[in-house]
Amino acid sequence: MILSRKFMALICVACCCGLTLSACMHKAPVMYSERTAVISGRGTAGDSEDDAIRKALTKAAAMTLDHGFRYFQITTPIRPGINVAIDVYREGEINPKKPGLWDAERIAQGDMGDIAKLREDAAPVARPLATPAKPNNSTPNCTAYGCVW
Fold first, then answer.
1. Contact indicator for 84, 60 with CB cutoff of 8 Å
2. Residues of 95-119 as b/e, b for ≥16 C-beta within 10 angstroms?
3. Residues 6+ apart with CB under 8 A from 3
4. Side-chain-facing half-sphere of 89: CA atoms under 13 Å
5. What is the pLDDT of residues 38-76, one digit of tens each?
6. pTM
7. What is the tens place of the pLDDT at every residue in 72-124?
8. Most buried pick, 12, 16, 23, 37, via CB within 10 A?
9. 74, 77, 82, 88: CA torsion to nearest 10
């Protein structure tokens, strides 16, 4: 009976240690696709736009580096409380001087620069959209978010 109590206590201690260690281990968030990640906006809800931009860029840089990439590009607007999508690239896969491209290593070192420049650079990069078939002869009004006739 005494042996079984000691054995049970040992099992409980081992389980607690295992849970504690697994909670301490850093696990990179899951990528949405091979090149795309989504940064949760939950941590920016209620923040000012400037604070939301800083937090989103910091999280995006961490996620980029966690997955072995160097650069990222914002593909959805940064707004407080809203998820932000990014595309990630390894060094040598993209021109580091491309407009709208962020260097995750610089951000991880705390180098974000001026907030006015951040606001300008944090705007999403417009992606080319496929032109939908026209339902009639009207001219579509197209933006980065789609076309409306």
1. yes
2. eeeeeebbbbeebeeeebeeeeebe
3. none
4. 16
5. 999 999 999 999 899 999 999 999 999 999 999 999 998
6. 0.63
7. 999 988 999 999 999 999 999 999 999 889 999 999 998 877 666 666 766 66
8. 37
9. -10
Q: What is the DSSP string of the chain?
A: -HHHHHHHHHHHHHHHHHHHHHHHS--PPPPSSSSEEEE-SGGGTT--HHHHHHHHHHHHHHHHHHTT--EEEE-S---TTS-EEEEEE-TTSS-TTSTTEEEHHHHHTT----HHHHHHHTSPPPPP-PPPPPSSSPPPEEETTEEE-
